[in-house]
């Protein structure tokens, strides 16, 4: 007997959320807070990629690496931290941070906000309809009175290279959950996952080789000096970085992974990590039942409503809409979209004005990101290249962080760089990039400056404490002022 066709359970909710990553959880919390009955469907672990195979475990691996690097730059402390990392302790701590890949804590939280949970794989089955295949083979049919919110995130995108399946390469999942250190690790890609994981595994004992296609350098979406400073530091740490290196094929022979490069070169390693970007988890979501194409990113308006669907019942929030693939942006979108859903369900107009209560304006104007390498990279708003492409009139203000008193205190021989982009028409800050040890915690100040569109004249009154690295703000303002003395047109 086929239980899936006989054991059907039908339920009605105001809101159905597919995917209980950080985004889905926050959508559900907001729609519930608006008084809407809400169910969330999850087919792996509550907390999503971020909690178990992305942000949390990667930062648990990186924190000791960065803390040790910082300590080694403090006179009087260097010798105390000269030894290798305690790898077993680092991996144990990582396991604790991810709750040993158990989600009981999150289940308690969901209960506390009165959101129902159905475990299983959800698929759309026509407008406002969702069919959930549960782990025991039953099907639960859900109907949404108001909204279905797709928050299904992304998985690793791996290129179609001959031999790849047989090699069983690492993706971000293995790179964040591995329980032993490969002797030799190849990292394909030069983006954020690649640089963070190269930093972590090199420090944990692997000999890391980075294979980076093209000549755009590392972190190609950021200011070029960020990738240069990170590359310099990775090389000093012993990483072999090969630019212009494309992998043509891979094979596993006698336990080794052998990568053949497009230029004919070869590399033998114990594991290969493909850190080559993300793909939306929309291939098996039933998109075809509502006229959309499976496997595609879902384009949305600023309230996260899917633009290609009529009647406004479908939202796509977080990574899956491709606006900004970051946990904090997904949660921000979730707050805005969840409140918009609540308002619309009451028959009210959503506030869609720029920076309004129901729109994710920051996705296009002020996305903050910290890359947890040594040195850290912290950036928000436009880069110089993005400003040029958008035809924005900006002035670039650079400052060497090594000249800031707080940086001297922070580390002997501090190396770092800061860039501020000033909108010359409006006299406001539209982009900031900091590179250097400890700059991650400076980023919120830059985010507030960009989001508040505070005139530079007012920022002079935001006095940074002496002697902190945040005095770089004063130096950036002075640099700009000295180029534009009063009275000079
Ligand atoms: C290695 C790595 C490190 C990262 N580090 C950071 C960082 O430091 N800071 C940061 O801001 N971002 C970081 N990110 C990005 C961050 O992980 C994502 O932006 C974030 O997880 C997106 O959240 P989400 O809820 O949209 O999707 P996800 O976290 O992917 O969650 C989606 C959920 O939906 C579930 N699901 C999918 N399809 C279905 C279905 N059909 N039915 C039921 N459930 C389904 C999945 O099982 C999953 O639980 C990192 C990413 C990687 C890969
Ligand atoms: N600290 C953080 O905030 C953090 C950390 C990790 C990941 N993330 C987010 O997760 C997302 C995914 O990160 P990612 O590093 O996987 O993607 P990415 O898009 O940042 O980088 C992908 C890299 O792979 C390269 N690449 C793509 N296809 C390739 C191919 N076929 N062969 C060789 N190289 C190829 C690209 O040129 C690029 O260098 C990003 O949007 C990032 O913001 C954030």
UniProtKB/TrEMBL annotation:
InterPro entries: Class-I_Pyr_Nuc-Dis_Oxidored, FAD/NAD-bd_sf, FAD/NAD-binding_dom, FAD/NAD-linked_Rdtase_dimer_sf, Pyr_nuc-diS_OxRdtase, Pyr_nucl-diS_OxRdtase_dimer
Protein name (record): Dihydrolipoyl dehydrogenase family protein
Positions of the Pyridine nucleotide-disulphide oxidoreductase dimerisation domain: 367-473
Cofactor(s) recorded in Swiss-Prot or TrEMBL: FAD
Matches recorded under Pfam families: Pyr_redox_2, Pyr_redox_dim
Keyword set, alphabetical order: FAD, Flavoprotein, NAD, Oxidoreductase
MF GO annotations: oxidoreductase activity
UniProt domain FAD/NAD(P)-binding: residue ranges: 13-328
EC number assigned by the record: 1.-.-.-
PANTHER family assigned: DIHYDROLIPOYL DEHYDROGENASE, MITOCHONDRIAL, DISULFIDE OXIDOREDUCTASE
Entry's family note: Belongs to the class-I pyridine nucleotide-disulfide oxidoreductase family.
UniProt keyword Nucleus, yes or no: no
């Amino acid at each position: 007997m086929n239980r899936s066709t006989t054991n059907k359970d039908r339920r009605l909710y105001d809101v159905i959320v597919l995917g209980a990553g950080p985004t889905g959880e926050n959508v559900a919390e907001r729609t519930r807070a608006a008084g809407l009955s809400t169910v969330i469907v999850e087919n792996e672990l509550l907390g999503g990629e971020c909690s178990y195979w992305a942000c949390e475990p990667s930062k648990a691996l990186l924190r000791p690496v960065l803390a040790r690097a910082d300590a080694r730059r403090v006179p009087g402390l260097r010798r105390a931290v000269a030894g290798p990392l305690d790898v077993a302790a680092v991996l144990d701590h990582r396991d604790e941070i991810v709750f040993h890949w158990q989600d009981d804590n999150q289940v308690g939280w969901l209960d506390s906000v009165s959101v129902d949970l159905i475990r299983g794989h959800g698929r759309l089955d026509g407008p406002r309809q969702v069919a959930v295949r549960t782990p025991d083979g039953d099907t639960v049919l859900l109907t949404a009175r108001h909204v279905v919110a797709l928050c299904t995130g992304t998985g690793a995108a791996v290129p179609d290279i001959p031999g790849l399946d047989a090699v069983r390469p690492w993706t971000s999942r293995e790179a964040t959950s591995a329980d032993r250190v490969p002797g030799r690790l190849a990292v394909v890609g030069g983006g954020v996952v690649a640089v963070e994981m190269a930093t972590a595994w090199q420090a944990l004992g692997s000999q890391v080789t980075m294979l980076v296609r093209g000549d755009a350098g590392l972190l190609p979406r950021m200011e070029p000096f960020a990738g240069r400073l990170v590359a310099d530091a990775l090389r000093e740490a012993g990483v072999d970085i090969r630019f212009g290196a494309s992998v043509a094929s891979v094979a596993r022979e006698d336990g080794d992974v052998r990568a053949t490069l497009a230029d004919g070169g070869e590399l033998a390693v114990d594991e290969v990590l493909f850190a080559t970007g993300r793909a939306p988890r929309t291939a098996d979501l039933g998109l075809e039942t509502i006229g959309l194409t499976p496997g595609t990113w879902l384009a949305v308006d600023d309230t996260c409503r899917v633009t290609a669907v009529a009647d406004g019942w479908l939202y796509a929030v977080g990574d899956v809409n491709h606006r900004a693939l970051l946990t904090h942006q997904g949660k921000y979108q979730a707050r805005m979209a969840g409140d918009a859903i609540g308002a619309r369900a009451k028959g009210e107009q959503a506030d869609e004005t720029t920076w309004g209560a129901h729109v994710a304006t920051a996705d296009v104007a002020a996305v903050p990101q910290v890359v947890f390498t040594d040195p850290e990279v912290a950036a928000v708003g436009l880069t110089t290249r993005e400003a040029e492409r958008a035809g924005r009139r900006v002035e670039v203000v650079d400052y060497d962080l090594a000249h800031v008193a707080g940086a001297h205190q922070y580390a002997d021989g501090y190396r770092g760089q800061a860039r501020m982009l000033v909108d010359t028409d409006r006299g406001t800050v539209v982009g900031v990039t900091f590179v250097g040890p400890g700059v991650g915690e400076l980023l919120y100040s830059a985010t507030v400056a960009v989001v508040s569109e505070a005139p530079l004249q007012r920022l002079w009154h935001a006095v940074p404490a002496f002697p902190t690295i945040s005095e770089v703000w004063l130096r950036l303002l002075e640099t700009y002022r000295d180029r534009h003395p009063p009275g000079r047109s």
